[in-house]
Amino acid sequence: MLSACAGMSNAYAETLTISNYIFTGLFTMEMVLKLFALGFFEYVADSFNLFDGLVVVLSIVEIILDVSSIFLSTC
To answer: How far from 19 is each of 1, 15, 39, CA to CA, in Å?
Structure first.
């Protein structure tokens, strides 16, 4: 995350993490709604939708990797 910095407090780090989850969830819902409303082929016809979808997928991958690294570090 761009806002993360060395020496930040735990509360600030938790706020950034929760904000990341919330915004990723909102953008995922937006993408899914647009996919249902427009249909797949009309959705991918717009380059902005492709960019939006890529950002959503990468955000979800980031969250999965972050959660899995936390899980693996506790084992």
So the answer is: 11, 6, 29
pLDDT tens for 27-61 read 999 999 999 999 999 999 999 999 999 999 999 99
CB of 62 within 8 A of CB of 37?
A: no
Angstrom distance (rounded) from CA 32 to CA 36: 6
CA distance 48 to 58: 15
70: confidence class by pLDDT, cuts 50, 70, 90: confident
Instruction: Say how many C-beta atoms besides its own lie within 10 A of residue 30's C-beta.
Output: 12
Q: Residue 3: which residues within 8 A CB-CB, separation 6 or more?
A: 16
